[in-house]
Design goal:
By secondary structure, this protein is an alpha/beta fold. Helix content is 39%, strand content 15%.
């Protein structure tokens, strides 16, 4: 079993707070490292898989007028229902399905863990509920599990970042996870996994009474989606975000699944978790989705050009991507990362996140000019 966060008794010697006060803070929380965002001021920011494009000036002005007219003195109201309806038109699901909104997909991941944190009892063999996911993957699956009192089991991918189906099925048989996450495409490897392997995992989870969450955060850049297959299973949920759509700053995620299942999870959602500003900005974007679709097409085109350029660098191995990022392996990740930063380009050094990522960097796809700067900095820093 993989434990992302370990308790270190010496942690009390590392804080200025008195022991009596620290005693009230959970030991595993004390031992955690807070999620940090790399300083990016003055750098070409290609570390966080953000859409590099801004709205055209006329749309900025129109959005500003709409946001300025909102009643910020009131809690969110019926406009939230309008957003839910707009998202259901954007990502259509059949009758009997429902959609739940979150303050980013991170909140929805946390709420899923909270809803499934069944306490140990005689009925479950006095074991904690388990969240299972392939690794390396999105760090919030493990972090949310531990913070909500579940165990996390990480199953290593193969050396080329494919699903190890035998290992996944064996881990599921042993741990009987409450939730199995499958990112489609995966972060940070950026690949789509084999459909037949995904179906085997989904079927195994169904036989055990577990949920499967297909995380499609990078769907705007992928060649396919699981959405059409969602109605085939009652225990599968589809998770998406508008961050990669082009709205990382507004923090809006959504979860789709059978209405009865979504209704149970929705019970743990905080009231008014989506602000009127987030809601109106998302509605505005969906009304102009053709603008964001063109941006996604440009990003995919730039991705292909980057991949072609990387293939010409003998010291770099680039992995195929279905997202707005590329994973590359270099001779010395820290040296290359530091060299690129010194040349004004910020990427993500993921080499310490998992043994399979040794000497790997993650490159976000930017604009044409940003990508040109990034490639030049990469080549000079090898």
């Amino acid at each position: 079993m993989h434990n992302l966060l370990l308790y270190e008794p010496s942690i009390h010697r590392m804080t200025d707070l008195p022991y009596a006060l620290m005693h009230r803070i959970r030991p595993d929380v004390q031992a955690m490292h807070a999620y940090t965002v790399q300083p990016a001021q003055g750098l070409v920011k290609l570390d966080a898989m953000e859409n590099p494009h801004r709205l055209p000036p006329e749309l900025k002005a129109e959005l500003g007028q709409r946001l300025g007219a909102l009643a910020l003195n009131r809690y969110p109201g019926d406009r939230i229902q309008d957003l839910r309806a707009a998202l259901q038109r954007y990502a259509p699901v059949p009758d009997g399905f429902a959609l739940m909104l979150g303050n980013g997909s991170d909140e929805l991941i946390s709420l899923l863990a909270l809803a499934c944190a069944v306490p140990p009892s005689a009925a479950n063999g006095f074991k904690k509920a388990v969240v299972l996911a392939p690794e390396p993957g999105f760090v919030m699956y493990a972090m949310s599990a531990q913070l909500q009192g579940l165990d996390f089991v990480g199953v290593p991918l193969t050396a080329d970042f494919e699903l190890d189906l035998a290992a996944m099925l064996a881990a599921m048989a042993q741990h009987r996870p409450a939730i199995t996450y499958l990112a489609y495409p995966n972060n940070p490897s950026a690949n789509l996994w084999n459909d037949a392997a995904i179906e085997r995992i989904i079927n195994a989870a169904g036989q055990q009474g577990g949920l499967v969450v297909i995380d499609e955060a990078y769907q705007p850049f992928a060649g396919k989606s699981y959405l059409d297959r969602l109605p085939s299973h009652h225990h599968v949920l589809l998770l998406r975000t508008l961050s990669k759509f082009g709205l990382a700053g507004i923090r809006l995620g959504y979860l789709m699944g059978r209405a009865a299942l979504v209704a149970e999870i929705d019970k743990v959602r905080p009231p008014y978790n989506v602000s009127v500003l987030n809601c109106e900005a998302a509605l505005f974007a969906l009304e102009h989705q053709e603008v964001f679709e063109l941006q996604a097409l440009d990003i995919c085109g730039q991705r292909a050009l980057i991949f072609e350029a990387l293939a010409k660098l003998p010291q770099v191995h680039a992995y195929p991507s279905q997202a707005n990022m590329l994973l590359v392996r270099v001779p010395d990740a820290q040296k290359t990362f530091a060299g690129m930063a010194a040349r004004g380009v910020l990427v993500k050094n993921v080499s310490k996140m998992h043994p399979l990522l040794t000497q790997c960097l993650r490159l976000t796809v930017g604009t044409f000019d940003e990508n040109r700067q990034m490639l030049a900095a990469l080549e000079a820093s090898l």
